[in-house]
Amino acid sequence: MVQALDLFAVRGPDTGVLRLADGVDLVADIYRPDGSGDYPVLLMRQPYGRKIASTVVLAHPRWYAAQGYIVVVQDVRGAGGSGGVYDPFRQEIADGAASIAWARTLPGSNGRIGLYGFSYQATCQYLALAGGGRPDAIAPAMGSWTPETDWAYEGGAFRFSLNVGWASQMARLQAERKGDGATLAALAAAVGPAAQRDYLLTRPDLTHLHDWLANDPAYWAGSSPAALLGAPPPIPVLHVAGCHDFLLGGSLGADAAFRAVSPGTTHMIMGPWSHAPWNRAAGAAQAGPGAELSVDKAQMTFFDHYLKRKGARPAGLVVYDLGTDRWDSIEDWPARDAVRLWLGSDGLAATLLSDGRLQPRPNDGADILVHDPDRPAPLIGGALGVPQGCVDRAAQDNRSDVAVYTMPPLTAPLRLLGPVQAVIDVQADAQVFDVCASLSRVTGAGHAYVLATGYARCTGSGPVSLSMGAVSITVPAGDGLRLSVQGAGTPAFELAQDQIAPCTGQRAPITMILRHAGSSVTLPAIPPPKEPHDA
Q: What whole-number percentage of the chain has pLDDT above 90?
């Protein structure tokens, strides 16, 4: 007990203020180890009020300070106690670089600095690099690398419920900051994503939503770490990714970019998580008791190695296997092996669960389904659905507006690790329509647990490429895999306005023909590891 109490011998929080070149003050809480000497600095920058400090998923800053670090949690411009006007992403470029330079020289600092934080706080780390900031190590957990395509839009379709919800949250924070009771009441009265969207579009002073819906390439060019950085600097990085996280594409994109310039100092943890929470969501994700892993301890091991020169180098990839309920350490990432399967049926994949097949060779068949905008098939599970995660979509697969393709039960375990890609060749009687695909593990009992999802908005018939995130599972013998194909999925996405008849306001059903010869799914099959990782 005495040792545990000693670990939390931390001073603070003290208040630190950085005055930027334009006169805006950024306010931070600073935690210091209760001892003499100089320490590395860990900096987190976030827009939700610095007292929160990513504790929705990470340990409190005091825990990190107790490990021998000065921990700085800063309110970004226009948030919490900081001055200025909040403008997501773009403001974090110069402000982030200035904050790194300031935090590096705080009293008690030894001159070495790391960045950490989750979600928006992770994206701030990339943007600070784009502004010229050069920390000694970073640990972005579930951040955005290309906000237009890995946060705001998916396959050209706006992520409706997700982004309206976040815009409403940020608008509430702005109203609370200003003591604006009338705006808070109006936000509370706007029930549901459509009503919230309509109200927020009348208040561009409160929110970024109008910019995101305008989808101006110039706006995104000034907000994207990938576009601003090009190749990132070769600094040590530890990414945290979730197979069912809506920002999984951002984590994978950033990991690939850093690995290309410095593979030896690029690390990633990929778990069975949605955006939040992490370990406590394991049961809902069909994960077992072995899924629990302390990201805080892993980050501390990473920072100790690169900022204190203590301990062994972390593994290149530590990844949870949903089938074996264990964590594996892998250096050869991403895997280069793949298995390609084609869609096939006797033409009844949309009406019989047993008709559609995933098969090793293409054929010239086709299936027809009708997407009715008045009763669209819900999109559930994976990184895009509501809810997210490894949920059972067997009921959705039993609908006649969903075409289902299932492989025979496996005779031997199949290890899948890495990105999933699908191509669906669609002929539709509409100029604008959506296509959604879900990859599921099918059990002997008939459950269909979602592993990955992909979505695209199409402007004409032809092959549609769907990036479906990444999976990590050993599918056991006796189980199989299924690809489910449907039209627009709600409530995650809003139906395209082009599908609404201008004279009646009604939405016309869309007939979709799925051509087998041009439709396939590519799975990242690899040999299973010989020994489990001791997490």
A: 85
Three-state secondary structure call for residue 179: coil
User: pLDDT of 212-235, one tens digit each?
Assistant: 999 999 999 999 999 999 899 999
Residue 398's closest CA among 333, 442, 334?
Answer: 442
Average pLDDT estimate for 107-132: 97
Q: CA nearest 137: which of 54, 220, 232, 211?
A: 232
Distances (CA, A) of 32 to 63, 69, 71, 407: 11, 7, 7, 56
pLDDT of residue 187: 95
Domain count, the chain: 3
How is residue 340 written in tokens? 């390609």
Joined together, the tokens standing for residue 328 give 């594996």
Instruction: Quick: pLDDT tens for 497-525.
Output: 545 544 545 578 999 999 999 999 999 99
Of 330, 354, 378, the last residue of a domain is 330
Residue for token pair 């800053």: 61
Contact 266, 254 (CB under 8 A): no
pTM: 0.94
**How many angstroms separate the Cα of 19 from the Cα of each of 82, 128, 446, 515?**
10, 17, 61, 61
Q: Is 165 a domain residue? A: yes
Going by pLDDT thresholds of 50, 70 and 90, the confidence category of residue 528 is: low
Q: Three-state SS for 343? A: strand
Which residues are within 8 A (CB) of 8 and not within 5 positions of it... i.e. 6 or more apart?
62, 63, 66
Distances from the Cα of 234 to the Cαs of 47, 200, 259, 301, 463, in angstroms?
Answer: 27, 40, 9, 19, 38
The pLDDT, as a whole number, for residue 501 is 46
Concatenating the DSSP letter of every residue in 421-439 gives EEEEEEEESSSSEEEEEEE
CA distance 277 to 256: 25
Residue of 424, 431, 418, 496 lying closest to 466 (CA atoms): 424
Indicate if 354 and 422 belong to the same structural domain.
yes
Residue 50 DSSP code: T
- What's the CA angle centered on 59, arms 268 and 310, to 5 degrees? 55
Average pLDDT over residues 24-31: 98
Owning domain of residue 417: 339-526
Where is the domain boundary, 200, 217, 234?
A: 217
* Run of H or E including 453: strand 448-458
Q: What is the pLDDT of residue 530?
A: 57
The continuous run of DSSP H or E covering 64 comes out as helix 61-66
In a domain, 293, yes or no: yes
DSSP 206-270: T-SHHHHHHT-HHHHHTT-HHHHHSSPPS--EEEEEETT-TTHHHHHHHHHHHHHH-GGGEEEEE
